[in-house]
Amino acid sequence: MSNEMMPFWTGDYYNEGSGRDGIFDKLKEECGVFGVFGHPEAASLSYYGLHALQHRGEESAGLCVTNGTEFNYHRGMGLVKEVFDRDKLSSLQGECSIGHVRYSTSGDSRLTNAQPLIFKYRDGDLAVATNGNIVNAPKIRRELEQSGSIFQTTSDTEVIAHLIARSSKEFVEAAKDALSQLVGGFAFLLMTNDKLLVASDPNGLRPISMARLGDAYLFSSETCAFEVVGAEIIRDIRPGELLVLDAKGLREDRYAEPQRKALCAMEYIYFARPDSDLNGSNLHSARKRMGQMMAQESFVDADVVTGVPDSSISAAIGYAEQTGIPYELGLIKNKYTGRTFIQPSQELRELGVKMKLSAVRRVVEGKRVVMIDDSIVRGTTSRRIVNLLREAGATEVHVRITSPPFKNPCFYGIDTPDRGELIASSRSIEEMRREINADSLEFLSAEGLIQAVGGDNKDDYKGGMCMACFDNDYPTRTDFNGEEKYGCIS
After folding, report:
1. Residue 264 annotated as binding?
2. What is the pTM of this model?
3. Active-site amino acid positions
């Protein structure tokens, strides 16, 4: 490979091309949605809400606002603070808005796929924003194209607009029919000139919650966004539920009967911010309990405990509290490398890890270290971080993962590698330990995870979580793409 300076990203801007990070093999967040109904500063509230949800998608951001008669919208590639400025926000006038931050799991990374998607149809304007993935979208898309529909994007979200537009029913009933045809994990915000619809999939796979700010209603993928704007959390949107907001107020309805509750386990483990709540459980507290359960299941004598920033810090604190081993900041994350990160040559590739993550030599040198992390995907990240600690002088590195082994791809909105690339799908724990160069390696049991999460669904099947990435037990059909199977069995 040439020594020519080259960027890690493949396009003209950071995160173009699905935002793959060539160094770290962490799972990629899905998307985030934020909606406002009945507030004169809807666009500004949505801006702050999307900023709080930025961790869920860094490729594109968009806002659509209605003043009751027409839409105003703006979308762009990049981070929220780069897509919007004061002038753009001031042009988005109206009391109802929906916003979106995107990381593509379906559809190309380009502006035409940035959401909210905007459409003209017989009854006026329609804007759509969603978090998640529609498993049977390719099948529906083929059928619609065969009957004459012309798609403008490669995003699976567009199928719902076509289904609504082709219906002869009024908007709410047409939306119900359209939603009932979808299979997957999704949280939808659908907006017309005078209505806002909010829907959750029948299994509640993707999170979405409701809050109040004065007389206005707010909706968000995570409750942390409500805290930012000073809104009072009301509740989560229930599986299969459809909320209709218009001049008459809020109406609670549903388009499907609820199926078994199956909120994505990785929301608890990794994706959601620690200051968010899911199903009555605070994420920081839940992750601390994961660390405590990990200590009970897989104690190892050591000198210090450290967590891989940022998502594993809470669990590392829990592990330390449970064992009495001191918690230390043995690893520091550099938050300011994203847009200037370069790869001078293949030979210097490993230096990229040190640009984003550093081991604190004075903390780990001569010490037996317990390294807490939330998951292992391909194993390359874990190996690099273990080696960072060893290079900084750690005498032993014991890796503890606060989730079961990640063996199966996700169909519901998380960008996961093929099964063959998931290290746990083909290797034993001992083989994985050798692969990542650790002195020991243990994973949290499924039972320990369920107990740690707790919350309102502790008595539900699997604690109300989808754990298919660990156990291959998918809550919906997944055989819509020519593969005669349920789940993902290769």
Report:
1. yes
2. 0.89
3. 31
